[in-house]
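Here is an idea for our session: we take a single protein and study its fold together. Start from the sequence, derive the backbone structure tokens from it, and show both lines together. Once you have written the record down, we can walk along the chain together:
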Amino acid sequence: MLQNYFKIAWRSLLRNRTYTILNATGLTVGIVCALMLYTVIQFELSYDTHHQKKDRIYRLVTDMETPEGPNLTGAIPYPVPATLKAEYPQIERVSFYIGGGSGQITVNSSNQKFREASGIYAVDPSFFDIFDYTWLSNDASATLGQPDNAVLTQEVAERYFGTWQKALGQTIRLNNNRTLNISGVIKNPPASSDLPITVLYSVTPRTSTDWVSINSAWQAFVLLAPNTSGEQFNTMMPEFAKKHRPADAHKAVFRLQPLKEMHFDAAYSTPSGRTFSKATIRSLTLVGVFLLLMACINFINLATVQAIRRSKEVGVRKVVGGNRRQLLGQFLAETTLIVSLSVGAALLLSQVTMPLASRLLEFPVTLQVLHGWDTLAFVVGLTLAVTFLSGFYPAIILSGFNPIVALKSRVKSTGNATLRRALVVFQFAIAQVLIFGMLVVVKQMNFFQSTNLGFSQKDPVILINVPTDSVSQSKVNSLKNELLQQRGVAEVSMSFNSPADDRNWFTPLRYDNAEKDSDFAANMKVADPNYFSLYDIEFAAGHAFASTDTFRAFVVNETLLKRLGVKDPQDAIGKMINLWDGYYKAPIVGVVKDFHSESLSEEIAPVLMMHSDNYGTANVKLQAGQLLETIPLIEKAWNRIYPEYILDYQFLDDRIASFYQQERQMSQLFKLAALIAIIIGCLGLFGLASFTAEQRVKEIGIRKVLGATTGSIVSMLSRDFLWLVLVAAIIAFPIGWYLMHAWLDDFAYSIQITWWMFGLVGISALAIALLTVSFQAIRAALSNPLESMRSE
């Protein structure tokens, strides 16, 4: 019996090819989206779940209270981890995780140089007691027990030495100032980890009594004892901070952040620099569900309308003895066949498109759709769910026809017309919400790119990483002079970082001989005097510090003065700034106009600038139009000054763009989702329009005989569908406004949602619907009325 069901189902699908193609295409597109979004969500949810003790692992973070609100960081003062371990028996292990992540590795045996963009960190042996990695060689106790021992990943060891076995016992140099002995190799960790690893090395822990200063490169993790609650432990942390921090320091509390929450909390960032909010995961889940529902709605609408063609078939089957249960099985078999074909096509298509989507969405690795039993279970569950959602209602309708009415061709309408209209409204409401979201996200991204940040971005600027050891720093002036002699180089300035940067150093200060530190922290920027002219930073009062003013003068921005209550910038000139209890004390010589030192998600920060004798970045402004010719010249100049170092640089525009990686992902996802929603909606609308025109073919013939014009007939057939799109717009606009307004609230600087955005979305939806419907409407209007009325 079952075999017969599928044999007849196959013949029926071949006989109704248009219906089959429309339904299969819509379902395939919807299932591809569901599979790809499931793969993305699974990848994000898998971050750092491979550690066996993941539920007991926490990162130490700092919550600082300022007048502007909480200032959260994933770093802590140096003494915190060891002191916590000594005072609280609930902490089983503690390990620091120190470093900027990037650096140069030189293999001593071959003198080969490698620039690692991330993953170079100093740890202690306890790190491997907390986190789980598979060892190819010795375990942690044998590798990191001595200072300057190093552990490599398999990929890195093979890249440096050919095979990981050859790496053991070899030595490498880190940034040409630290020799490391390779004593262990671990298997490559999963890509879904916020703890990037290329080289881990041991250092001798230093002692410190500084409970105030925080360096973003200094992070630490703890392993709580079994049956110890992280939430309960956090209730003791305010008293711990109060006990150890100076009384006059700004208020701060240390806290345990669960490892399983780290990837989803952008407020504290992560060592990998990549986060993915749970709100985004919920949004992706809803988008996937809605797109799949749209595909199922297409199937339902087309199947119920298609039923009018099959009414006589149903009547004949019932007359010859077929019962409703058998007919139900027959029509569900057809649905199962279409869904199975669609799932197979979707699996093939998603395998092809997933690598492209991974690059488009800037994932760290190419995601694979079929990667485990959980995916297989999802595919099976998806097939069953889509079969039930798409096939059950049409099968009930088809199997319930009265055979006498069906045989007399008196079936004029199938199912509930109101339900079909409601489903079309639901489809286009989803599509318009997605189109509106895409428009808002794209406009916000354009706002990021076009907003004046308060410094010049007209000419290209490259940021060159300069080694900070004393020998290299003695050559900085030689590098600067060498670069200025190169054709195409307009200006050079040395600094700690760029004007807008994600590597920032915040410090409290004392203004005008105040007895206490300010109640806010200033963004400390160290730069030479050329910095202001290179970036065209304007002065509101005073002037730049001189080249001889090393540690002897400060420049501040307008926001810093506002926080101090100084209204006139000129009044601040000559006033003293005191840092770190008099360690640096110098007058303010200039006040610059505000510029954005962080992303546009943040308010403009108070900025304090000074001239130093140690810099880590060379800012090189290039002449427009000579980029390709100038970069090789810069590389040659660099090799003359620093032959032992690889030139490592980044364009300023790329650094600023990196602030908005998650927003770019959102933009791409909205574009794809909106496009797919439009495709699915149009497929369903096309099918409905064609069957509606076929159902009204005799009516159209009579109207033409009575003198109706082609335009009036097209208008008649299109009008009903366009009204449905308008109703969908009325539903979609408030939902879209609410969702996107909530998203924009996360940015300190954002666009305004204006009326024309709603108008554009509505007009676009109407135009798309009209184009889709008009093809069938025009075809019906141009048909010969005699052909349609021949049987009358």
About this structure: The chain has 28 helices and 22 strands. The mean pLDDT is 79. The longest helix spans residues 324-360.
